[in-house]
Write a structure and sequence with these properties.
The termini are far apart. The chain is built from 13 helices and 10 strands. Helices cover 33% and strands 13% of the residues.
C-alpha cells in the first residue's frame, strides 16, 4: 500500500514523500518564543490555534496517519544582469506559476480519495498547505523531508529549499515511511550574511518586521524607509537567502505544469508593473499568489 501511495504522489507531481503519525511538535517552545518576541509583526493569525500547532493529533479527530509531501517550484535562476539591474521587478520564484494554495489543495484531495479507493473505505481526511493550523516545517522535518536551515527554510539534500510543503491528515492506517535525510548547514553563514535587512536575527530565526518578503506581501501599510532602501528590485517576496544557499545547486525544475512560469512573471520590469491598470494586473497575475499583495500593494512596492 505504501508504495502505491508514494507512486501516486509522484504521479501528481510531488517530489518528496513521507508518512508519520500524529504527535507533539518537538520545537513548539521555540515557536512560542518567536511569537513572544513579536517576530510575527502584525500577522495575528500566527497566534491562533496554538493547541493544534503544538499537537498534530488535535487537528483531525481519529487521525491515524499524516502524509507529508514536498514539491519543487523551481524553474530557473535569475541571471546576474537581472539581479543587478534596478529597473527589473523581481518576483519570488514560488509565485511565477499558479497559486500553490489552490493547486496543491486539489492534489491533496485527489491523493486522499486515492487512498480511500485503495483501502475500499470512506476515511475522513483533510489537507493543508500553508493555510491550516500546522507548523509545516517542523512537521516535515520530524517526518524526514529535510532539516530547517539557518535561513529558516526547510532544506532537502536532493532538491535544496525551493519546494513547498503539503500535508494530508487521514483516518487511514498507513505504515510510517521516513526517507533518507542527510546533510546540514555546518559552519556556513552565507544566508545570514546576505540578508540585506538583517531579518535573520539569529540562526533559524526570521524577524518579519525586518523581512522584505513580509513587507512586500503581508504589510498593508507604508514600508519603512530603512526597509525600502534595501529592497532594490525585489518587489514581491525575496529569495536572497535561498539564492546564496549552496544546497540550491541541487534544485530541480518543477514537475507540476501549474507551477511553471506564466505570463513572463520571471522577467518583468518596474515599468511594466507601474504601467499596469488594475485590469491588466488581474490578467497578468490571474490565479497567482501575487494577488495577495493586490494592485495597490504592487504599485507601492515598485515605486
Amino acid at each position: 500500500m505504501i508504495n502505491k501511495i508514494k507512486n501516486k504522489s509522484w504521479q501528481l507531481g510531488f517530489d518528496l514523500f513521507a508518512v508519520t503519525k500524529p504527535s507533539l511538535v518537538k520545537n513548539f517552545s521555540k515557536y512560542q518564543e518567536w511569537l513572544e518576541n513579536g517576530y510575527q509583526a502584525d500577522m495575528r493569525w500566527m497566534e491562533k490555534n496554538l493547541e493544534k500547532k503544538a499537537d498534530t493529533g488535535r487537528i483531525l479527530p481519529n487521525c491515524q496517519s499524516i502524509v507529508v509531501l514536498g514539491v519543487s517550484y523551481f524553474n530557473r535562476n535569475f541571471t546576474a544582469e537581472q539581479k543587478d539591474d534596478l529597473k527589473n521587478a523581481l518576483i519570488a520564484r514560488y509565485a511565477w506559476g499558479d497559486d500553490y494554495h489552490i493547486v496543491l489543495k486539489k492534489k491533496l484531495i485527489e491523493l486522499g480519495n486515492y487512498i480511500n479507493n485503495l483501502s475500499n473505505h470512506d476515511y475522513v481526511f483533510c489537507g493543508f498547505t500553508d493555510t491550516g493550523p500546522v507548523l509545516e516545517r517542523e512537521l516535515a522535518s520530524q517526518a524526514g523531508l529535510g532539516w530547517i536551515g539557518k535561513n529558516g527554510n526547510l532544506i532537502n539534500y536532493q532538491i535544496g529549499s525551493y519546494f513547498l510543503i503539503a500535508s494530508l491528515f487521514t483516518e487511514a492506517r498507513i505504515e510510517n515511511y521516513r526517507p533518507k535525510n542527510i546533510g546540514g548547514c555546518g559552519s556556513c553563514q552565507k544566508c545570514l550574511l546576505a540578508c540585506p535587512t538583517k531579518a535573520l536575527v539569529k540562526e533559524k530565526t526570521v524577524d518579519a518586521r525586518k523581512c522584505i518578503a513580509y513587507h512586500t506581501i503581508e504589510n498593508r501599510g507604508d514600508i519603512p524607509a530603512t526597509i525600502k532602501e534595501k529592497m532594490g528590485n525585489r518587489i514581491f517576496g525575496c529569495d536572497i537567502c535561498q539564492e546564496v544557499c549552496p544546497w540550491n545547486r541541487f534544485a530541480k525544475k518543477t514537475r507540476m505544469p501549474e507551477l511553471e512560469i506564466m505570463n513572463n512573471r520571471d522577467c518583468l520590469t518596474k515599468s511594466d508593473i507601474l504601467k499596469m491598470t488594475q485590469e491588466e494586473y488581474q490578467q497578468c497575475f490571474r490565479n497567482s499568489a501575487v494577488k495577495r499583495a493586490k494592485w495597490e500593494g504592487m504599485q507601492r512596492n515598485t515605486k
